[in-house]
Amino acid sequence: MAFNSKHHLVQNTEAIRLALQLQKTGKAPTQEQSELIRQYAGFGGIKAILLPLEDDKAWQTKADIELRPYVQILRDTIENEVGEQRAEEYWQSLKNSVLTSFYTPPAVIEAVGEAIRNTGFEATHFLDPSAGLGQFTDGFRRVGLPLSNPLLIEKDLLTATLLETLHGKTQVKQQGFEDISSRYLNTFDLVTSNIPFGDVAVWDATFANSKDKTKRQACRSLHAYFFVKAVDVAKEGGVVAFLTTDALMNSPTNEPIRQYLMRNTNLVSSVRLPHNLFTEFAGTSVGTDLIILQKDTQKISLNQRERLFIQSTRREYPSNQYYEDPSRIVHTKLQFDTDQYGKPAQIFTHQGGTEAIGQELKKMLDEDLGQYLKIVAPTEKARVSISKAPLTPQLDLFATIQPTPIIEPHPFEGIKYPHLKEGSLAEQNGEVGKVYELAEKKSLFRPLEVSKTQQAKVKSLIQLRDNYHLLYNFEQEFQAENAGLRQLLNESYDQFKQEYGELNRKENVGTVLLDPQGKELLALERVKDGQFLKADIFEQPVTFSKKQRIENAEDALLASLNWFGKVNVAYMQQISGQSQEKLLNQLPDRLLYNPIREEYQTREMLLSGNVFEKLQAVQDYCETHPEEKEALRTQAALQENQPEKVPFELLEFNFGERWIPTQVYQDYLSHLFDLPIRIQYAQSTDTFTVRPTRSTQSNAKITTEFAVQAQTRTYDGLDLAEYALLNTNPHITKKLYNGGQEVTVRDQEKTQLAASKIEQIRSQFPIWLNEQPKELKTDIEQRYNQLFNCYVKPQYDGQHQQFPHLNYKNLGIPSLYQSQKDAVWMLLQNEGGVADHEVGSGKTLIMCVAAYEMKRLGIVNKPMIIGLKANVHQIAETFQSAYPEAKLLYPQAGDFSPENRVKLFNDIKNNNWDCIILTHDQFGKIPQSPKIQQKTVQAELTNVELDLEVMRQQNNEVSKAALKGLEKRKANLTVEMSRINHQLKEKKDDVPDFQQMGIDHLLIDESHRFKNLMFTTRHNRVAGLGNQEGSQKAINLLYAIRTMQQRKDKDLCATFLSGTTISNSLTELYLIFKYLRPKELQKQNIVNFDAWAAVYAKKTTDFEFSVTNNLIQKERFRYFIKVPELAMFYNQITDFRTADMIGIERPKLNQKLVHVPPTPQQEDFIHKLMKFAETGDATLLGRPKLSEGEEAAKMLIATNYAKKMALDMRLLNPHYDDHPNNKVSQCAKKIAEHYEQTKQHKGTQLVFSDLGTYKPHQWNVYSELKRKLVEDYQIPPNEIKFIQECKNEAQRTKLFADTNAGKVRILVGSTEMLGTGVNVQQRIVALHHLDIPWKPSELDQRIGRGVRKGNEIAKLYGNQVHNYVYAVEKTLDNYKFNLLQNKSLFISQIKNSNLATRRIDEGSLDEKNGMNFSEYIAILSGNTDLLEKAKIEKRLGRLESDLLIYNKDVVQAKQRLEGKEQQANKGETQLKKVEADQIHLKKINAYDENGKLKGQLVIPDLDSKDSKEIGKKLIIIDKNNRNSEPKVVADLHGFKLEVTTITNFVEGYAQRENHFSVVSPNGIKYQHNGGQMPRTPEIAAQFVHNAIEKIPKIAEDQRKRVVDFKKDIEQLKEFVSKPWPHKQELAQLRQDLQQIERKIHDSLMEKVSETKEEQRKGVKVGRF
Description:
By secondary structure, the protein is of the alpha/beta class. The protein has a seven-stranded mixed sheet with strand order 3-2-1-4-5-7-6, with helices on both faces. It has a seven-stranded parallel sheet with strand order 30-31-29-32-34-28-37. Strands 38-43-42-39-41-40 form a six-stranded parallel sheet, sandwiched between helices. Strand 18 and strand 19 form a beta hairpin. Helix 5 runs parallel beside helix 15 (353-372), helix 20 packs across helix 21 (569-576) and helix 56 packs antiparallel against helix 60 (1591-1617). The longest helix has 60 residues, at 1424-1483.
């Protein structure tokens, strides 16, 4: 029987009504009532539940409209039974069940129960963790499997109510499986369920905090979590039997979960069930597995079945190795199709229905359980004593033995200070003890049994603790000093010390740690020279900076800016003792008056930022206050500092930029589609919705010209417009038969057609925009300039800074570079930014001075520097040398051990450090504030909840898929919120988080190491975007920066320092902005990466055909537009300097590209590579045939082979020969030359290669190079070292020292190991690059090892460092090098704001995908003309393919045109007949004065004119008529009433019903009530009247329809007659191809002639 949504809704509603009524009365159900409740089947297949009942626009499909009244009845039923407020909770739980609830067919449950029963297995303790209505319990009992102690868990509120009604409250728990008590661990004999479907996360504190990585991973999805949790609660030998989605077995990401299961259980059975298993019960098709496991945590090995169980199959149609045996799958048919998510899948079905499925399953289970289930004889259960004493908290890293409180507790009557925690020490009625249940209204006090001496010490400690927290909390909250509380703190500490000694004395530590905040109290003392000293909090505030007395106007200005965030002249007077007039006279060029804010501001700040907004506001003010000279001076300064306007003509637009008003897109699409269109944009989900203004409207442009008719669905113009707005393309598939089996493949033609039409929509937008009235273009121009070209970068001049306390003598320098002063000044002014200075330009000192100055001037309170482990010691030494008296915290590695970490964190919190210096890794160990995480997640959750509401308010048609997606997102965010709330609840004050430490500025050295920040994007097929998931350390940094930004309500609050802020692509700029400029991005309507890319990037899409003729779509953000404004947005917060700009004394770079001719073996292999790229025949390369997955990555494989081949053939196969002229030989020769030339001064050289790195005991390029240097050039082997030989930091340090000393003269390594943080420059004379890195930053890092300050030996040899890049001809080397140079140039231009163009092309080669086939072949051939020919052929091939598809599209449009013309003719004919019927009725005067039809229906064998009698007669006719031919049964004004009997077959049974029509004198049939005769006689008698009265409306509708047909005909005629838009380009390309082919031919003929001439001359010479 097919799934019937309406039937299920009615059944579910009745079951719910009865259960709620029984719950209200407290009565138990009768057997009959129980059966009715058991008819409830959940809402897993009824997605109409998600639609809003109050919004008509949301109910679009016919199926949904039919279900709407039944959904309303369901909602009303719940409200009537439980009330409106409670009903909302039930309704929400019911919605949630749509995502996960699919009830199990009884035949499957009974098959499992019988199989277990037949083994004799005893299930004394039974658990169903997702019980539904208890189907497994009922089914097992029906087949005789005894269940004596069942526990049924059901999370869904509504389902749990029904479950309690059936099984009683004692057996049922309404909660999630994640909330099960820990007392149930290792308890259950049998755990079975149909676990919830759905890829949503779960929050379980024990799993999330587990050291077991697999348990942490399990929290990410329901199905994984249920299995791992079930193993926990099952006893040894217990059985877990779950029905689960096939994703658990198929997905490679679940391999760790499957490994965990196989390590801790024995595989009893695993059976794949058909996709149509749930079709009858839930109306859904879903892949399902039945997995049965037996717990065995002591197992030591896996059998073959279990090994297969772990392994996924990696191919287009995912599966599991275990199911490679088809006998493990219950099915009668296999199709290769897509699953419910549109992804390729094997679809198994069974034609026999659920009973047949159950029987087949039973056979398999009997066999499996009989063979693999171990039955253990029952033994006497061991008694386990469970202690009631409170456990030591898991997070307590310093757990100590505490006195056991044995006295009964009594109510706590003292003050419940906010700082008290569970178990805090307290005093009451002269006793000391601990307080518990602080969250409750009545807390408990449990006295401690201690000596009187110990009691007095505890009392003194309590007083000290309370005074400390009261002082700290007050000053943190009010940012004001409290001298009284500080005095009390000092007195209580002094008293304790006088009587008992320091807190950290050995005899006191135990007592202090009795309190949960004990470790924090121990941090009130710090050690110096072996003595315990008071922490800074005893003398001064540590949560904020105290205002300082400043003598000069400049320092007064700085202090004012950064203390108040503005120029506060009164404050400047106070701290300097000077009058306002005197101060302003000293600062004429530094300050301007801002009349809008009625305050002075610095010129740099007022004349920077969004100067458009500022000028407009000041101009408005000056118009009404022309007498104010200071305001007029400011207006003039702003006018002088406006950026040059970018005119409309120079702007390049993308369709879908979020800043352009949707009205513009509406007007464009209305023009394009020739139909009024409306567009809504939802910011929280960054989605566009395109709909006609009237939902029923459409035309031929939408349904034909801009539509793609795929096999499975039609993508009309509105659909493609949405894709175009988001710059994405649909994934279109079709079904084919291969070897008798149905398979789903990508529809190449339709995919390309969709892409072409989307590109047409996008490309026509700027053309249309350019044709619009001047007013619109002016408005767009102005809007753009105000949003993007509105920024001015201040010219920071730090020359005036004196830097008091800076010790130049210790640093060995007379002064800072001007660049360093400027950078520090910028950071002080902005409170952060980017110091983008070249390697070796003094970033370390910038960092140290900026941190100290921020602290000194009160800009920040606790700055923190974080750097690489290799550099951080040097940073600390520099800071200590620069500021010997500074209070610097530089922890050692041991301070971060678990036993010392908490004390260190409290040291940071309780002391007023001038600076704290940590490594990147150490910083990652600081816990981030859960409150900030909570705020961030809550904001996103609120956006998701509001977004749907906003869309509904805008009358947007919301798809069920969108609703389901939002519900899933909400569920996952709710789980994340639960995790954070748990973290807050469990938090201990003795482990301060980042927010509590008071750190208010971060300076991040080598900040590019944190570029791997998570971001979301729809462009998942675009190459070069990096890892969108991000790294944990990057996420931690983001939370830390957000903590500081939210505290100060501003951007920045952090300083990035790096010479390679942009390492490879301009897309990295977005991540910098995401960290540092979230508020500014928000102003530009940029809420995510896609919105940013829509403004600045242009995506290119290449379609290539693989060797198997599959279409491969390659996308990348190749072009960047609006580049000057993008550069300014970056430069506004950045100080960029190169070494040349700074004037650093360092060697010059003498770059040389060494061209290496290919060896004969390389020549031969190049031909093989070209053939492989063309055919995909991997055997040419000496490797097996490509797999399906490798086929898609063919060009990446080819690119990687080309890289290795260019370096050394032996990287491909050790059997290849060495060659005296290969790359390694050429490199060895150059090294030897410089070795000899600089022998006197022991010049050193670095060799870089990321390929062929050193591996002991096997052939590698490093060892080969060393062999050549030793054997061919007699260089001592001890002078040649590999960086990989160093196993620890001490060995690295020694190696670097030996290199600087000239003991090691040749050092070989990779970019990663020999790049950042390596200081070996003292003797470098040459650098060698055996391979070419992918990123400009990597080449810069390599070069920076030698070309930097401190290179003394290079000065003796022309003060230059030779830089050799070795490139083999006819390989990718030259292309990669040129690409690298271009990227480096563009990045430099961006940073300099020195751009001659508004667009940048980044190139087409990337590390992850290789390059395209045609360019690859051309480059390997070594002929640049061939490269040009390849580019032309590529574009030509695309256009010719587009033309073919276009012609097919035109043919289809012509067919539609013929159909429309026929419909129009037919419509006009029908309209004439309807109009004739109207004339006929008027002629015979058929209407009364009110416009109602007169007369009574005439029935041949009925004389009565009574309407009731007429109606009865019609009802009798309806009942008795069984004529399949039309029969006239009545007449009115010449209109005949006909009845016809129609027979339908439903589930094999004939069902007959009569259909009534009213036939006019002109032959038109009119309908009423769907042709059904009403059952009420009075209404039935009016059937014909009602039908005839519709004629005027029918005529009007038909006229409109004819007009629409004619309009469609005009549009279709225009489309089929329109010339193809690329016709001229195609002709030009064909002409260009002929020219380049002639040029290549002439070139070849010239070479042939030259060869013949050489041969001729050679023969002549031979004769003489």
